Amino acid sequence: MTKVEAIIQVSKLDAVKDALHEVGVEGMTVFEARGHGRQKGHTEFYRGREYTVDLIPKVKLEIVVADEMAEKIVQAITSAARTGKIGDGKIFLSRIDEAIRIRNDERGDGALYAPAIRHGADRDLDGNRVATKIDIPLPADFIGGQSER
Ligand SMILES: Nc1ncnc2c1ncn2[C@@H]1O[C@H](COP(=O)(O)OP(=O)(O)OP(=O)(O)O)[C@@H](O)[C@H]1O
Ligand SMILES: [Mg+2]
Asked: Which domains does the chain have, with CATH numbers?
């Protein structure tokens, strides 16, 4: 398994999330982050305004996927998150030894996906209703205020 850590512009979160769902990502964690790249101490644009502070608000996503999915996910993120300007962000890949679904002790890739579920199906293998589109609104005070959905 591979962990994809992506630090992106706050304004690109919705587009990246949609692109990830599109390529079959079934789980992710999103963090509010602050950071700088190589222009540290220089100006950068955030929500149309120029900032000279050295830590700019960013969003960090963590996604653990089967190894063969990793490149597709990198491409989904880069094409959804790229503006071509400085500060677009970065992606880090690392190896994950194990994943365990707490509900039923499933391990490995089986803990990441429900392979028997077709997209659009609304029940899992146990017959339980499942959400097919995970879209819980972010808190109103989330950086960037992206709480409309
Ligand atoms: N080497 C790094 N380690 C950890 N986080 C990093 C690293 N480089 C960048 N980041 C994170 O990614 C965010 C965006 O980085 P950024 O896109 O500005 O990188 P960059 O190397 O300066 O590229 P660019 O020249 O396109 O701006 C930073 O604010 C920081 O949170
Ligand atoms: Mg930079």
From this structure: 2-112 (3.30.70.120)
